[in-house]
């Protein structure tokens, strides 16, 4: 086995070993971990759970209130009494005791239908919590995917710089050989070494950016920033997005717009509750009481009783300084404001979609163009490399071809990334991002 083949075999085994030491994090894995760990999503889930628990007839005031009642009053007094027949009686440290206990029930049977409006409002608040949870999921999943594909692109850039270093090392080796046999000047060798050092510097900086972005992704995934991983090698861009379809989806699914619509419905139910204050409130009450009274002085020294009590009360606001009218007007203004915010949100939504779609189309065109440029630059570099080996072109011409190829690869990678980010943005705005 030749030395060159042995070296390639060792390098291959090292790469395989390194790959096994790092987990491959797919976009689906990143989304799954985000849904499980992300703090913003977990907070939104807890808020939604609280909203779900709040939807109850009890919170709406539709159910009776039952209380256990216990009152025990005691006193020690010195008494002087003059009775109607003129007799007088005195007693020091007279003890008196009054004990009452039982069960009391109060039930608001009519309040102008406020309780029913309140129950509907609690249901709308549950929907609002669900929408806010979807918004949190959409925002964080899109941020994770954006960061994830940023890591993918930087990983691609590292691969480009690695291939560039291979070419630069070959160039130094060729320059060294040509200098040794006297076919090239030392200046050519020094230029080749300077360019190699420049490429190594670029790779170090790119490696730093790559590592920092991985730390940021780990942060979004709510896991240890030192967790090492690799990402997939390529980005697949959905090229079939259609603006009219996205606009329809956005009006139906966009969480921010749905939040405005639900907020308007909540404001309408708030107005119903305010208007209910114009009607009487009827409350029924009943209970079963036990009573015991003890007195050291009096006609009755001991008394016990027990039994039912029941009744009802009616109250109605007749005049409150015109506050009722003001409250209704304020509630109507809140509804008008929500209608304006819905219209504003729709306009902003369509504007964002239109702008993002234009960017998306531009980036799709750039992918085609930059791929063509990369192919041309690669062919040019191959031809230049062969000519450089036989010494028919200068070092400067070779370096120019090499840089053109590097830049073409980087621009193509950047174009794919930007198209992917445009796709994610469009799907996030339209509420169609899959998670």
UniProtKB/TrEMBL annotation:
<dbReference type="GO" id="GO:0015562">
    <property type="term" value="F:efflux transmembrane transporter activity"/>
</dbReference>
<keyword id="KW-0472">Membrane</keyword>
<keyword id="KW-1134">Transmembrane beta strand</keyword>
<dbReference type="GO" id="GO:0009279">
    <property type="term" value="C:cell outer membrane"/>
</dbReference>
<dbReference type="GO" id="GO:1990281">
    <property type="term" value="C:efflux pump complex"/>
</dbReference>
<keyword id="KW-0998">Cell outer membrane</keyword>
<dbReference type="GO" id="GO:0015288">
    <property type="term" value="F:porin activity"/>
</dbReference>
<comment type="similarity">
    <text>Belongs to the outer membrane factor (OMF) (TC 1.B.17) family.</text>
</comment>
<dbReference type="Pfam" id="PF02321">
    <property type="entry name" value="OEP"/>
</dbReference>
<keyword id="KW-0812">Transmembrane</keyword>
<protein>
    <submittedName>
        <fullName>Outer membrane protein TolC</fullName>
    </submittedName>
</protein>
<dbReference type="InterPro" id="IPR003423">
    <property type="entry name" value="OMP_efflux"/>
</dbReference>
<dbReference type="InterPro" id="IPR051906">
    <property type="entry name" value="TolC-like"/>
</dbReference>
<keyword id="KW-0813">Transport</keyword>
